[in-house]
Amino acid sequence: MAADTPVRVRFAPSPTGRLHIGGLRTALYNYLFARKHEGDFVLRIEDTDQARYVPGAEEDIREALSWVGLDYDEGPAQGGNYAPYRQSERTAHYRENAEKLIDAGRAYYAFDTEEELQEMREKHGAYDISTRGQMRNSLTLPDAEVERLLEAGTEYVVRLKVPREETVRFDDVIRGGVSFDTSEIDDQVLLKSDGMPTYHLANIVDDHLMDISHVIRGEEWLSSTPKHVLMYDALGWTPPTFAHLPLILSPEGGKLSKRDANRLGIPVYVTDYREAGYEPEALLNFLALLGWSPGTEEELFALDEMVKAFSLDRVGASGVQFDLDKLRWVNEHYVRDLSVDELAEKARPFVEAEGYKVGDDRLRTICELVQDRIQVVPEVATDNRYFYEDPDAYEEAGVEKRWNEESADLLLAYTERLEEVDNFDTDTVETELRDLADEKGVGAGAIIHPSRLAVSGRSYGPGVFGLLAAVGKDACIRRMHRAVEVLG
RNA sequence: GCCGCGUUCGUCUAGCCUGGUCUAGGACGCCGGCCUUUCACGCCGGUAACACGGGUUCGAAUCCCGUACGCGGUACCA
After folding, report:
1. Where residue A219 sits, what CATH number does that domain have?
2. Residue A142 domain flag
3. Which domain CATH number covers A107?
4. Quick check: is A84 in a domain?
5. Is any atom of strand B within 7 angstroms of residue A290's beta carbon?
6. How far apart (Å, rounded) are the C-alpha atoms in residues A463 and A466?
């Protein structure tokens, strides 16, 4: 690729399921690179496997990208100068180029049945330069026979004719020079018997036709890249610049499999993060840091700041383990940056999903109280249930530490005062408590702690006075009486 | 098995290309302190790593080779 070629990159997922977290990261890095270089970011749907096609998957992918705010310049829904952007709608291009390869002697027809292939693999291992001579294809069959088979409508595939004993080299932005010996490369199927191309053919044809300048994809593609390079060469095309991203691994090492992730509580699909209430900006921020480093000590980046700081040569080459704690830490900062109104609005659905009913004003009050002590929005409800319902138990360690013989009497005395209060707000509640403490000659803590325990069931949380006010007069008095009964 | 890629604190990483300034820096986590009559936030401090073995060199985390380990690929899946 010439240095002055405009940057065009693509995210090319296959619609075989919901968008995976690793896929989102690939999309993000492509996006960052494109925006950084004022280039184009293209969404291309690689739906060439009819057996694995999942209806609705493309919509899920588009919605996921839209939720996190990764906008693309061209794609199946909005079109663009290189339309269409679904490979199933571009089959003529693949066929045409497969034929070009055949004419150039760089690919061939193969008629082997599945059984024949299986038998060959058991005996020889691979379909390559060393075995293709024993198979039924346009290299071994007389021309007339090939012609006859084709005309008779016999099922066939087109395979890449990998040259003998050559070294294929290419540069990878992230890894430097990479080389493979052609003896290691199979005669890859390019066109399947159903007429659809395989990934390998489709991706190079489209990347070329769509003027893609940089191919930024997962490391799982590294070992098929030499096949692609061979095809670019055979077609007389200049290959794009390659950048193979390190894979995201499970916190225990190994691949981030669905099962492991579930066991460790790690969401795998983008929709799972959405449902778990993560901030999309935080997810992107976290993902950017998973494999890339700005080289400075900054960790928190808005998307446009990431664009400015991004560079492919600061992407690491080794696999990275997913760290949920770090994600939660990043998310926490984004939650804190929300206004109280925004937080309340975001929290509402999660609060309701827990079956709690709460008015707007009160929800805002609660949010104000908990905002800097939660990491993820749903915790407004799940980590602070006492705002919505009476506690059904008292934290053992808290009782041990904070509840003593005089607690019940003090609490009762406090409730009597609270009964008389008309304006049950933070200040009043505090004044009443401090006055009572003075009167009784005890420290405020002697009432504060039992009050918190009684009202929230816990020994920690927001400031007690704000807490009491938010819970409300009737509930506070009810809960205090109850605590005295239960704890003595 | 074979091929490819990788290997700095538990984790994400800076440093490596352009050897000395690295008694290896930051962040998450964890631990401790301050603040707060709670908890958290915040602030301060601590914990902890150059996979191993050979070379090259006056000098290696940095360059070279080997081993081990990890990951990926090895499909008419992407």
Report:
1. 3.40.50.620
2. yes
3. 3.90.800.10
4. no
5. yes
6. 6
- Straight-line distance from CA A78 to C1' B69, in Å? 48
Calculate the angstrom distance between C1' of B29 and CA of A313: 28
Q: What CATH number should be reported for the domain holding residue A359?
A: 1.10.8
A410 and A326 both lie in a single domain = no
Q: Are strands A248-250 and A189-191 parallel, antiparallel or unpaired?
A: unpaired
Per-residue pLDDT of chain A (488 residues; tens, 9 = 90+): 445 689 999 999 999 999 999 999 999 999 999 999 999 999 999 999 999 999 999 999 999 999 999 999 999 999 999 999 999 999 999 999 999 999 999 999 999 999 999 889 888 888 999 899 999 999 999 999 999 999 999 999 999 999 998 999 999 999 999 999 999 999 999 999 999 999 999 999 999 999 999 999 999 999 999 999 999 999 999 999 999 999 999 998 777 877 778 888 899 999 999 999 999 999 999 999 999 999 999 999 999 999 999 999 999 999 999 999 999 999 999 999 999 999 999 999 999 999 999 999 999 999 999 999 999 999 999 999 999 999 989 998 889 888 988 999 999 999 999 999 999 999 999 999 999 999 999 999 999 999 999 999 999 999 999 999 999 999 999 999 999 999 98
Q: Which of A40, A48, A49 is nearest to A75 (CA)?
A: A40
Tell me: do A263 and A243 sit in the same domain: no
* A98 and A187 part of one domain: yes
The verdict on A234 and A280 lying in the same domain is: no
pTM, full prediction: 0.95
CB proximity list for A352: less than 8 A, separation 6 or greater: none
Q: Which domain holds residue A280?
A: 258-336
Do residues A109 and A183 share a domain?
A: yes
A198 CB closer than 7 A to any strand B atom: yes
Write out the catalytic residue numbers of A: 258
Are residues A183 and A219 both part of a single domain?
A: no
For residue A114, which nucleotide's C1' is closest to its Cα?
A: B76
3-class secondary-structure state, position A386? helix
DSSP letters, A226-291, are: HHHHHHHHHHTPPP-EEEEEPPEEEBTEEE--HHHHHHTT---BHHHHHHTT--HHHHHHHHHHTT
Residues A233 and A274 in one domain: no
In this prediction the ipTM stands at 0.96
**Cβ contact A112 with chain B strand, < 7 A:** yes
CB A71 within 8 A of CB A304: no
Total domain count, chain A:
5
Q: Is residue A1 part of a domain?
A: no
Q: What are phi and psi of A339, to 5 degrees?
A: -75, 160
